[in-house]
Amino acid sequence: MTSSYPYLLKPLNLGIITLKNRVLMGSMHTGLEDSADGFPRLAAFFRERAQGQVGLMVTGGIAPNPEGRLGLGGTGLNAESFKTGHALITNAVHAEGGVILMQLLHGGRYSRHQGLVAPSALKSPINPLTPRALTASEVESSIEDFARTAAQAQDFGYAGVEIMGSEGYLIHEFFSPRTNLREDDWGGNFDNRARFAVEIVRRIRQRCGKNFIIMYRMSMIELVENSNPWEEVVALAKAIEGAGANLINSGIGWHESRVPTIAGMVPRGAFTWATQRMMGEVKIPLIASNRINNPEQAETIIAGGFADMVSMARPFLADSDFVLKAMENRADEINTCIACNQACLDRIFDAKIASCMVNPRACNELEMNVHEAAFPKRIAVVGAGPGGLACATTAAQRGYKVTLFEAADRIGGQFNMAMVVPGKEDYAETIRYFGRQIEILGIEVFLNRQASAADLVDGHYDEVILATGVSPRLPGIPGIEHPMVLSYVDVLWHRKEVGKKVAIIGAGGVGFDVAEYLAHSASIGTSANAELEQFLREWGIDRFYRIPGALEPERQPMKSSRTIFLLQRKDSRHGASLGKTKGWAIRAALLKRGVQMIGSVDYQRIDDEGLHLRVGNQEQLLEVDNVIVCAGQTSSKELYEELKLAGTTAHLIGGAAKASELDAERAIEEGTRLALAI
Ligand code: NAP
Ligand code: SF4
C-alpha cells in the first residue's frame, strides 16, 4: 500500500539501531509510575502503543536520586526490586517489536519536598519551597547518579535513556544564567554552565557503551527572562552531540514561563520553527515537539525540513494506534487529542492517575476491554453528544445492534459549540472520529428526531440509554425575557448576532468560552500562518531569537474591539474551575483582550438601559447591547421516569444524569463503561 506519509514513516537509522518510523511517543508521567499496581498497567499501556507501531517511546520521568524526585512519593530507581517491574514493561514492548527509553528527570528546584536542590538557592516562582545549593562534590555525585541510573535502565532492558535537560529542571537550571549563580567550575561562563549536561551525557556513554541510545531533551526556546542567547543554545547542542548523544529532542519553555506551550490555544505546530533553527547545526537527528497531533502536520514537518522526527505525547493517550492508522491510510479513524488537558495533565496535578477525555481506556488497558457480547442485544441510545456517542460506538464494537436518536440535525452535542471557540477547534476532530466510527460500525442514526417514550417502549430495544444532555439554565433575574438577552446556545450554536458591548452572566467554563469567542471574533486571522503570527505577537515570542530566551520584554496589547464584562456572584478568582494547566492562560488571554472580570455581583434587573447590578454597596449600570446567559444547566428526567414506569431497562448518563456537573470527560467515561457493562 502506498503511504500518504512517506517522510513520517521512513525508517531512521541511528547507526546503532534503525527506528521503524519518525514518530516518538514523548515522555508522559501517568501517575502509574508511583502507584502500587503500576508496573503491570504500564506494561499493558506501552505494549499497546508498541503494537500501534510507534517508532520510539519514552517512559515517564525517573529520578536519578532521592533529591531529584518531583514529590515525596516520586519515582526513583535505586532498588534492584524495581527490576522485575521494569522488565514487565521492556519485555512487553520488545515482544511487539518496539523500542523504549527510560527518561531520567531530576526535578531540581521544581521538586515538591523538603530536600530539593538546585545549582543555586533560588526559589522558583511556581514552587513555595526554596532549594539548597548543591556543593561541588554533590554535583559530582549527582552526575554519577545519572550514570548509575542509566546503567540500571540498560540492565532492566531499556534501549537507552532520554536525559531531561529542558523545561527548567535541574540540568536546565545549571545551564541557565537565570538559575545558576555559581562561581565555581559549575557556573559563570558557557563552558561551566554547560558542563553538568555534557558530563552527564559523556559519563552515560562511557558507562553504557556505544550501543545504548542517548536522547537529550534540550530547550530550543526558553520563554523566560534572563536566559541563554541562541548562540549558546546551539553551542550546547554541539557539545551534547560531541559528548555522545544520538538524538536531540526539543523542549519548549520553562514550566514557570507565562506563555502557554501545549494548551489548545497554542496553534498546531507553533514551535516547530524553533527546532528548524537548529537543523544543520548538528549531525544527529533533531525531534520537533509541542502541539503536533495529526499525521498530515507531522508529515509536513519532516518533509519541510523542520525536523528529522516528531514527538507526540498526548496523541498517544487519545489513540494507541495513531501510527498504525497512518500507515494503513486510515487517518480519518484516528481519535485525535484535542489538547483539553482535562483527563491527563489536570489529573496528574491533582495526584490522580492520568487517562484521556476522548479515550478513557488510556492507562486502563487491563480493565476496560471490548469483549464481544454473548447475546446480541438491541440498544437504543438517545442523544448523540460525546457521552451518547461513546456509549453507542462501544456497544456496537461489542456486537450490539445500536440505534442512535438525536434531536438536532447533527451529532456531537455540546462539542459543536466548543469547536467554534478559538483554541478549541480540535473538538471538531472528536465529532469527525465518532462520525467515522458510526459509518464503520453500521450504527443506525436518526437525526432531527426527538425520541419519545413511544419510540422506545415498543419492545424493539433490550436496553435504552438516555444521554439527552442538558438545557441552559435561565436565572430568575427581572427582565430576563428582554430581547437583548441571549443564551450561550444562541451565540455558539445559532451564531446569533452580538453587539459591541456585552455582559456575560456566569463565569464558568462556558462563560469563559463565550468571552473567548466574542473577544476574538473581530480580530482573529484566517490562515494557519496568520493564526501563528497572532499567537506569537500576543504572547511576545520572538521567532528570530533576537533576545535571549526569545521572549519580548514588551507585549503588544491585543484589545478586542468589543467591550466585554464577565460576571459572577462569587467573590473568588475568575476561572478557578477551569483546570490547573490551562485556566491561568485562558484568563490571561482574556485580560489581555481587555475583558473586564467582575465578581461579587448581585444581578438587579435587565431593561432597555442595560444590565443593572450591585457590587458590594455600589449600584452599577452596564449599558450593553446584549446580556448573554452562561449560568449553568438543568436537565430533565421525565423520559427516564416514563420508561421506568413502562418497565423498560433504561440508563441515564452524562449531563442528563447530573446537569450540575456537566462534563464531557465524565460523560464519555460513563458512556464507555456502561456499554462495556450491559
Ligand atoms: P458552571 O461551570 O456551573 O458555571 C456556571 C456559572 O453560572 C457559575 O460560575 C455560577 O457562578 C453562575 N450561575 C449559576 N447559577 C446562576 C444563577 N441562577 N444566576 C446567575 N448566575 C448563575 O457551568 P458552565 O459554565 O455552563 O460549564 C458547565 C461545565 O462544562 C463545567 O462544569 C465544565 O466541566 C464544562 N466546561 C469546561 C470548560 C473548560 O474549559 N474547562 C469549558 C466549557 C465547559 P456564580 O454563582 O458565581 O454567579
Ligand atoms: Fe489530549 Fe485531552 Fe486526552 Fe489529554 S485528555 S490526551 S489533552 S484529549
Q: What is this structure's SSE topology?
A:
Elements: E1 12-13, E2 18-19, E3 23-25, H1 38-51, E4 56-62, H2 82-95, E5 100-104, E6 117-118, E7 132-133, H3 136-155, E8 160-165, H4 170-175, H5 190-208, E9 213-221, H6 230-242, E10 247-252, H7 272-278, E11 286-288, H8 295-303, E12 309-312, H9 315-318, H10 322-327, H11 345-349, E13 378-382, H12 386-397, E14 401-405, H13 415-418, H14 427-441, E15 444-446, H15 453-456, E16 463-466, E17 471-472, E18 485-487, H16 488-492, E19 501-505, H17 509-520, H18 528-538, E20 563-567, H19 583-592, E21 596-598, E22 601-607, E23 610-615, E24 618-622, E25 626-629, E26 633-634, H20 638-645, E27 650-652, H21 664-677
Parallel strand pairs: 3-4, 3-12, 4-5, 5-8, 6-7, 8-9, 9-10, 10-11, 11-12, 13-14, 13-16, 14-15, 16-27, 18-25, 19-20, 19-25, 20-21
Antiparallel strand pairs: 1-2, 17-26, 22-23, 23-24
Helix pairs in contact: 1-2, 3-5, 5-6, 12-14, 12-21, 17-19
The structure holds NADP nicotinamide-adenine-dinucleotide phosphate (NAP) and iron/sulfur cluster.
NADP nicotinamide-adenine-dinucleotide phosphate is lined by residues 473, 475, 505-511, 513, 568-570, 577-579, 630-633, 662-663.
